[in-house]
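Please produce the structure of this protein holding iron/sulfur cluster.
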Amino acid sequence: MPEKKVVDRILGLYVHIPFCRSKCNYCSFFSAPPQSEEEMDRYTEALIRHIQMGKSLVQDRAFSTVYLGGGTPSLLGSDRISRILEAVQQTLSIRSDAEITLEANPESANQDLFLAFKKQGGNRVSLGVQSFQDDELTRLGRVHSVDQIEQAVESIRSAGLNNLSLDLIFALPEQTLDRWRENLSRALLLQPDHISAYGLSYEDETLLGRLYAQGKIAPVLDEDYVQMYDWTRLCLKEQGWIHYEISNWSRPGRQSRHNRLYWNREEYLAVGVSAHGMIGRIRYSFIRKAVQYVDVIQNMKDNGKSGFWHPDLMQDKVELTQEEMSSDFMIFGLRQMDGISINAFRNRFGYDPADRWSDALSALKARGWLVQQEDRVRLAHCAVPISNEVFVHFLD
Ligand code: SF4
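Below is the modeled complex.
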């Protein structure tokens, strides 16, 4: 397909699929098992129509990334994933070198799916693995086995997809450093290009969160948490990996372009129930009600901007002030291990970070939590475990 007009500013597309086979014990994302195949069909058609409405917001601007996330997008199966990506390619201007990612879980991963994804321009898979030990998978409420992880990777490779990210979770209750080391080693044996490793957190509305609140499970000690994180950092560094964001590592050149776009506060069009997007200064999110989302779109008469942002679809829609945008730029930017560029900040906002946060920057540098080297300000390694304490200084 010939490439349409390309405009320089970076733009991404996020498509949210809210279906999962069952709810994991730690998950607070908006997701639920589909009631029927028809429900997934109707949702797919609603998404396609919503993407078509979204065109009016971006005109012919070209997208550098497309990300099908969830939930479990792989649960839609090859036909629906094909239909969505075909609509994306036909409706929007997608750069020929765009990064196009599919999130998948091992229990719904198969070669047909990945072949169909690749045929529609897909080139990156993010596989939810979490652990390489069946008892840990059970504790997390995952519905796949370690064998299925290995089969999924085999399907991804045999479909000719060679950009693979694995998601892992560490600091599970009672997990030892040795067990976490084994998980990471098993992950590396699969030769991924990217690893996201998150420490388990106990969200209120999750099963593990409730057990924690009732005192029935205990999180790992803080020092064990830090030991696991530090070991991840050192082990991957030794193997030539790049630590580019607090919880993300990659082989050189394999950073997630889509996630970088979030951390650099670039624009992204988002569609789907509960999806969050940002276009220009407008930050928005859609309702967390799948049936209403589909019904409103199906009955919509307006195909333009006002249809895309129909009040019955919106959870939230705000126009950010310059101050809010510059705070976000600092907070999200400092999540990246190379930090923020002062020049980039100045070009975007017309002043220097020090003009607004002089006292905070001095204090954080004096404590050794921030480091400035020429044009860049970054989080010191010692401040990573307490990064939220640093970020809070840039809210005012
Ligand atoms: S598969 Fe992912 S989105 Fe779905 S319930 Fe589990 S953690 Fe949540």
